[in-house]
Design goal:
mainly alpha; 69% helix
């Protein structure tokens, strides 16, 4: 049913086992453990861009929180209109809420795929998802990309005396299936490997949640829903690792530790870059504001006058002279010309003409 997940996961695990098995030996427990670790790193590298988008979406959601609260307050009695306005706000700011949870959603099938592939190395159990095979049939049946020889190599491999597919609460009948492939492991050997991994995974989960909560804004942290999720991430999820650890194979615990280590480093890298970008944008905005501001002691410049002067300077010289010579004398004196009067050319009348007018008046 989920073969489209199982085959890619098993193929990546097979590739890394071939690489580390070439150096450390095919049946080495460390080769198989490193294959699991680098399977995690490979998948997280593929999900790097969605993770960056998740971080940007989360920060953008925190910035829009005041506007969202205003819309909720304004349309508290009209759910339909509130939804419309919310979608409009998200569209204006290019905000996609799905990107906030996409990386987590993508990791779920990967985790389930790896869990199934690792359990399929030992199919002698009779629980959910087990086939109840005999030890011989199990060891000689391929596991997706892995051949029967690879299955036997995985059963033989030990990490400090514990098989990678074994877990603390595993039934004794299932442990007997390792008899011909490295010997029957003891519960003590499995616990000595599993318990430290459980503790490390729980602490790493808490530290990742703590770093994420510390970067939240005060308004986001004050939200009741966000506060509840923060408490769950800080305490419930790490406790869940400790409670569920005895039921998880050693390889799954290695996956959990590796995933948390990658997340911790990736958070610091991505948040550091985003904070640096935001600081550069603030500095650029301050520099633009400083360039536009008047110098100390200088008189502020009227932008409108400056633009008008620039238009006059850009106009052709002949056009300016014609405009001045054609301007009516009445307009220069501030008076309007009489109706039907001929426009003045701007030249003075001769003196003789003025004397004749004086004689007539006499």
């Amino acid at each position: 049913m989920l073969d489209f997940i199982y085959y890619p996961v098993s193929a990546i695990l097979w590739f890394w086992h071939q690489a580390f098995g070439y150096v450390l030996g095919k049946n080495s427990g460390f080769a198989w453990a490193l294959a699991v670790v680098f399977l995690v790193f490979t998948l997280r590298l593929v999900l790097y861009k969605p993770f960056v988008k998740q971080v940007r979406t989360t920060r953008q959601m925190q910035e829009l929180q005041p506007q969202i609260k205003e819309l909720q307050k304004k349309y508290k009695n009209d759910r339909q209109e509130m939804t419309v306005q919310m979608q409009k706000l998200q569209k204006e700011h290019g905000f996609n809420p799905l990107m906030g949870c996409l990386p987590v959603l993508l990791q779920v099938p990967v985790f389930l795929g790896l869990f199934h592939v690792l359990r399929s190395f030992n199919r002698t159990g009779h629980g959910i998802g087990q086939l109840g095979m005999t030890p011989y049939d199990n060891a000689h049946t391929p596991n997706y990309i892995f051949s029967a020889a690879d299955v036997q190599s995985f059963l033989i491999a030990r990490l400090f005396g514990a098989p990678l597919s074994a877990y603390i609460t595993e039934p004794a009948t299932v442990l007997q299936s390792f008899a011909d492939y490295g010997g029957v492991p003891t519960k003590l050997a499995i616990a000595l490997v599993s318990i430290p991994l459980m503790v490390i995974a729980g602490v790493a989960t808490h530290m990742n949640a703590r770093a994420s909560v510390a970067r939240q804004s005060a308004e986001a942290a004050a939200n009741p829903q966000a506060a509840m999720m923060n408490k769950m991430a800080l305490y419930v999820f790490p406790l869940g690792v400790l409670v569920g650890g005895p039921f998880l194979p050693v390889a799954i615990l290695i996956y959990w530790v590796s995933n948390n280590i990658w997340t911790y480093g990736q958070q610091h890298l991505v948040f550091g870059r985003i904070e640096k970008e935001e600081e550069e944008k603030k500095q650029a905005a301050l520099e633009r504001r400083a360039q536009n501001a008047p110098k100390p002691g200088a008189k502020p410049v009227d932008v409108r006058k400056k633009q008008a002067a620039a238009k006059v300077e850009d106009a052709p010289a002949g056009a300016v002279e014609d405009a001045v010579s054609d301007a009516p004398q009445a307009s220069q004196n501030g008076a309007k010309p009489a109706p039907g009067a001929r426009p003045s050319t701007g030249k003075k009348r001769s003196g003789n003409r003025g004397r004749a007018n004086q004689k007539r008046r006499r």
